[in-house]
């Protein structure tokens, strides 16, 4: 039986983000970093004080990762960059697709191998399967790991680091791969979940300590919980129809942070959803799996 969860959803920031994305919890700082892809901006939210600091990004910012050196790895339209909060500087690392002007980097996350994995997406209205998934190694080298994607999304790893999850939002499918945490090598791509229309399209996801995949069902206004075998166990309804990504945080990793968007919503839709584009939090009964930091 599929369960409808009734965990209370708290609004933290009525941001009205164009495309809120990539929430990343800092265990060291006890703060949440997240982005608005198209504003474009990088935010640092302190849940203890409710205060937020923001930096303007030089280009659309698809995703971020905390790094062991105290900086932040960012996936911009113009390539992978370092961002240093100490002086607000942006420094190019490398660009995986300088020859494809209509693509931009999208969802990304650091894996158990210490590398930042991020995929691209076709940014045109008539989206085509011209995107790829990339691995940015700590030494700055880039390797491609699968192409023919439309909108790369949904990266997450199992608690033991032996399985990687990854989705294509436009194909409405979540994949799984065997993963070698020592080398970053992937096994063959397998279908983990073929999304049904009422579940929404797959967007960003996170893994709990029990190995369940919590994925945003964009357009359906819910977070779906899938077992490690790909069975839909339940879903959490949200006050907005377009959640984009979720991430576990808090001192005990039992707070689920959720971003959302307003992009392409009509005036009527925005009137019905005054919290569209907000940042939310949900107190969860289970902790999340910690996300690795970039570097060795």
UniProtKB/TrEMBL annotation:
Transmembrane segments: none annotated. Binds 1 divalent metal cation per subunit. One of its GO terms (molecular function) is calcium ion binding. Substrate binds at residues 104, 106. InterPro entries: 6-blade_b-propeller_TolB-like, SGL, SMP-30. It comes from the Bacteria. GO terms for biological process: L-ascorbic acid biosynthetic process. Pfam families: SGL. The active site is at 203 (proton donor/acceptor). Keywords: Metal-binding, Zinc. Belongs to the SMP-30/CGR1 family. PANTHER family: REGUCALCIN. This is SMP-30/Gluconolaconase/LRE-like region family protein. It comes from Collimonas pratensis.
């Amino acid at each position: 039986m599929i369960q409808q969860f009734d965990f209370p959803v708290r609004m933290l920031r009525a941001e009205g983000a164009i495309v809120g994305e990539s929430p990343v919890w800092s265990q060291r700082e006890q703060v949440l970093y997240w982005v608005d892809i198209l504003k474009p901006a990088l935010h640092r939210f302190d849940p203890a004080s409710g205060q937020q600091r923001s930096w303007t990004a030089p280009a659309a910012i698809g995703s971020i990762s905390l790094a062991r050196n105290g900086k932040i790895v960012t996936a911009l339209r113009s390539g992978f960059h370092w961002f240093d909060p100490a002086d607000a500087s942006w420094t190019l690392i490398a660009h995986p697709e300088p020859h494809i002007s209509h693509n931009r980097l999208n969802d990304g996350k650091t894996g158990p191998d210490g590398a930042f994995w991020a995929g691209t997406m076709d940014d045109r209205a008539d989206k085509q399967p011209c995107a790829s998934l990339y691995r940015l190694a700590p030494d700055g080298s880039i390797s491609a790991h699968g192409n023919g994607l439309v909108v790369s999304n949904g990266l997450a790893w199992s608690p033991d680091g032996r399985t990687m999850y990854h989705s294509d939002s436009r194909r409405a499918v979540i994949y799984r791969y065997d993963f070698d945490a020592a080398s970053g090598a992937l096994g063959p791509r397998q279908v983990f979940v073929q999304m049904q229309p009422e579940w929404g399209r797959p967007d960003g996801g996170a893994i709990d300590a029990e190995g369940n995949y919590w994925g945003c069902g964009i357009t359906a206004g819910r977070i779906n919980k899938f077992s490690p075998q790909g069975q839909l166990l339940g879903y959490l309804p949200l006050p907005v129809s377009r959640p984009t990504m979720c991430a576990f945080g808090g001192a005990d990793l039992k707070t689920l942070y959720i971003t959302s968007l307003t992009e392409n919503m009509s005036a009527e839709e925005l009137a019905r959803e005054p919290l569209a584009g907000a940042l939310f939090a949900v107190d969860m009964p289970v902790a999340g799996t910690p996300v690795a930091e970039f570097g060795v």
